[in-house]
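Reading group handout, session on sequence-to-structure problems. Before we discuss, look at one worked example. The prompt was deliberately terse, the way you'd type it at a terminal:

> structure 2-polyprenyl-6-methoxyphenol hydroxylase-like FAD-dependent oxidoreductase

The input record follows.
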Amino acid sequence: MSTRLDRAVVVGGSVAGLLAARVLRAFTDDVVVVEPDDLPESPVGRGAIAHGDQFHVLLGLAQDMLSYWFPTLLDDLVADGAVRCTSERDGRMYVDGHLRLPVPGHVFLPVHRPLLEHHLRRWVLPLVTVVRDRVTDLAVSGDRVTGVRTALGETLPADLVVDATGRASRLCEWLSRVDYPVPRKQRLALDLGYATTLYHRSRDQRLDGLLSVHSLRSNSAAEPGVSCIAPLNDDYWIATVSAYGKNRPSRDPADFAERCLREPAAGFATLVRTCMPAGGVSTHRFPHSVRRDFHTVERFPAGLVPLGDAVASFNPVYGQGIPSAALHASALAAWLRSGAGVGGYFERLRVLVDAAWQTSVIADFGLPHLVARRPRGHRLRQAVSGAIDRAAMRDPLVAARFADVVNMYEHPSALLRPDVLRRALVAATVERFLGA
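And the output record:
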């Protein structure tokens, strides 16, 4: 039996919070979004989003889910300058300078984070009440959360409180104050740094014939990391470089240009040799991936759920943040339709987080600088993953399955199906025979 709410309060007004507010409108006419930051009426960056000016791309699943809730959103973004890129003609993915097979039919949409949030706010905010304040605590009665308390001394009652405050969520602190157990936390110290800058672009300009380039430097490279170029609009290129540990990029424009010049993929050297910088270099440091396993707690109050980065935050080079937030919002809607207890919601989240965590962590455990205990079976998983990845460079079927997993259309287990493993084995055998 579907749940009907008198009021829902969403804590946090970024992407995850806006998506939660959107789906909650199907269950209540009274949705309140509590956000301490100003929510501007124009597509400008917000101080609360420290990585807002960095490279963002909407992967396939994110495009589909956002289009479901906001039918004209993608067209609106394109009308405001975003450029759709197809894998057949416009974009290429490289691994250590070697071209990965393009997969027909895949479209990816590089987008400026402030522009995306601007359009989401245009859809959502007219339907909700916005309270500009900071939540400091939960209001609790018995075994149920009944609302939130704010820094300005207000208590906002609610049948459901959704924590969408991101990586810095204080939910565990709030739970401990009212004697509820906190979830187990898993953390993987990455020490990732990435830097982004804009370059001037002439209308219809391409770089080495391409609109978009994604370059992965594998864990066996001298400087593992990911670099990307894409058109921000008709007037600007947006370019990002990343690396780990002591190799993290700086804000020095000369350092940025030098990294582009030694990037093994197409496009990067041409960018810095033919285009003028359009501003300074902004950097962001991502210290660790983290997940909070709410499904493991024995007691949890009714009337409260977290979603998005408040549950799990992954290595951003894989682009899982926005599609994960959309999946969590979808899980929230499915749970409310089911009428089940909060455990049903956390089981839905567990499946989603496990899949995204598996995709990122298998690769991250191979980083040479990472100081962490590898799980049992790590070497075998790395060997299988490496064989599949190499096969995706040559075999169209493996490349298509790989792209489906990257775009989050398929669970990572799709890469372990017999036809994929068989082709990966054949590719590895040919590779050894040819000495390639």
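Points for discussion. First: The chain has a mean pLDDT of 92. Second: The chain is about 35% helix and 25% strand.
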